[in-house]
Amino acid sequence: MYVVTIDPEVCVGCGECVRGCPAQILGMNDDGKAEVVGDDCMGCESCVLVCPVGAVKLDEY
Ligand code: SF4
Ligand code: SF4
User: Ligand 1 pocket, 39 CB below 6 A?
Assistant: First the structure.
């Protein structure tokens, strides 16, 4: 399975990862940061590649 984590200290809230996720498992929280809101990540790496600041980490278990 794939697990995505977003570092809120690094995220600048651009929303690109949210828009680019084909599984729609990313969202924006009240702090204006991206967060994981669902499961079933497909491991496509879109969020990792689109993030301008390297805030997204993708692990496979
Ligand atoms: S790896 Fe793909 S499916 Fe998983 S959270 Fe990122 S964009 Fe969405
Ligand atoms: S692409 Fe990166 S900086 Fe933009 S909202 Fe997502 S995690 Fe934050």
Answer: no
